[in-house]
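Hi P.,

Sorry for the delay on this. The queue was packed all week, but I finally got your sequence through. Input first:
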Amino acid sequence: MEDSRLLLVSLLVSTIGLFMLVFISAAQGPMPISEIVPENIGSKVLVEGVASETFTTPEGHLFFQLADGSKSIKIVAFSDVAGGLACVEDGANIRVKGIVDEYRSELEIIVSNTADVQC
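Then the structure:
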């Protein structure tokens, strides 16, 4: 009888803990771009700012700078994602979720899904 009670309490505490983690992660706001460092390479980040230097390559890849007042960073959306991002234009306020990467010694954020860009 004691074992079943201990199991029930354990399941209840685990479930509450999982709900708390989901709530806390959903409540976190965007990260300041100035806090993105090489140690973040490979990590998913959420940033927000104003787009500039927006351009699309002949292959359909989209590139733009995103600045939040603390710094700016290059945002990259390859052609399979870029087609769904018509709202990205210079001066637009944009929220981006993506993976931090490094290209030619510069940090950038790679967007892998159109839902990860909100204009």
